[in-house]
Amino acid sequence: MLDIKFIIENKDKVKDGLAKKGYTDIDIDALAALHLEINKLKTSSQALAEEKNRLSNSIKSASAEERPAIIAKSKQLGEDLKAEQDKLAAEQEKFNNIMLRMPNLPSPESPVGKDDSENVVRRRVGELPKFDFTPRDHVELMEMNDWSEMERIAKVCGSRTYAIKGDLARLELAIHMLVLDKLAANGFTTITVPSIAKEKPLYGMGYLPFASDEIYYLPSDELYLSGTAELVLNSLRADEILNENELPVLYAGFSPCFRREAGAAGKDTRGLVRVHQFMKTEQFVICKNDIAESEKWHQKLLAISEEVLQDLELPYQVLEVCTGDMGAPKYRQYDLEAWVPTQNCYRETHSCSNITDWQARRTNLRYRDNADGKVKFAHTLNNTGIATPRALVPFMENHQQADGSIRIPEKLQPYMQGKKFIGKNVK
């Protein structure tokens, strides 16, 4: 959420930011006029309430002849006040709905573009694998090593679900442990969180109203299934005023995640790329309201995820996401994409975002500044630590051997009981 005062004082800047993000349906001038009308209604309602109270208090001291007129006037004022308050409530609801749909403004450093075709490759790291055999895709590798139950699980749980087993299941957990250890070494507190949430945190994060078609809803319980630990972590300290000395707050959140993938109909239906339930380790940061500070953390989060891909010995590229593709909450965003040999392309493994104070305003997450004692809205940032099973796709394909076994990178071997290879043919 943006500050309405900032919006009114920077109309041209806000209009420009909305245009760059593709939000052309929000009328900033009309929003400013609505805000002015609400303030007028608040003033007039307050005046009517004060006048009604004055008349009510005067009834006791009024003569018998004066009382009927005072009572009648007080009654009329009450009706006028109710009409004014009803109008105020309606205008306030209209205003709130617009503000909830107001995206964050993009960074001046972000590339301007309309969609993902205009994202910018900042760098590529690692050499692409060279095979002296025809590489198999990840589904073939799972089948030949008896690592999955894809057909059977679809009968039980429907499409876009997965069940992996044996060494591949252990590999999935091992990768998460490697990432959690790395985050702990960087000062992050490991935290496991539920995968269900009330409605308010979804508005706080920005899932609602922007991505309602991607969210599972449990109407009998009025609860939602979470698509990332960020959802819960962003509201964990909601309505609190932290001391600046507590910042930054660093969480390494681990949880099952759920996404409907409604916008991906017909895409990536084979294997592990797009599934409805997955496991995710999430990096989440709460820091001071200072763009230099949050941009420093943005680069730190990005560096950690690059280290993860380097530890997994995966070739990858860093994309800076353009304004039209970064989504409503984002101020600045990078995506990391690992190479998938059989698809001859890079596929997303991480998404790293600076949200500035946009989420904190929605959750009322604040801190008291040591320098001036003022209460300020914090900045929040998030980045994937690792998400599986998606990350297993480039992992298996890049490290496959001619016999279908999978090589385990050196830094992951301690988490796999020292194994250097896994697979049916490994002795």
Describe the overall structure.
There is one protein chain. The protein has helices at residues 4-9, 11-21, 28-58, 67-100, 138-144, 150-157, 166-185, 199-205, 207-210, 229-235, 291-311, 358-363, 392-398, and strands at 120-125, 189-192, 196-197, 217-218, 223-225, 241-243, 249-258, 277-287, 316-320, 332-340, 345-356, 366-368, 375-377, 379-388, 406-407, 421-422. With 427 residues, the protein is an alpha+beta fold. The chain folds into two domains: 4-100, Helix Hairpins (Orthogonal Bundle); 116-422, 2-Layer Sandwich (BirA Bifunctional Protein, domain 2), CATH 3.30.930. It starts with a helix and ends in a 5-residue tail after the last strand. The model has no long low-confidence stretch (mean pLDDT 95).
Largest sheet: 8 strands, mixed
Strand content: 15-25%
Give the class-level CATH name of the largest domain: Alpha Beta
Unreliable residue stretches: none
- Average pLDDT across residues? 95
Q: What radius of gyration results from the CA coordinates?
A: 27 Å
Oligomer: single chain
At the fold tier of CATH, the topology name of the largest domain is BirA Bifunctional Protein, domain 2
By helix and strand content, what is the structural category?
Answer: alpha+beta
* CATH homologous superfamily label of the largest domain: Bira Bifunctional Protein, Domain 2
Q: Secondary-structure element order, as H and E?
A: HHHHEHHHEEHHEEHEEEHEEEHEEEHEE
* Cα separation of the termini: 57 Å
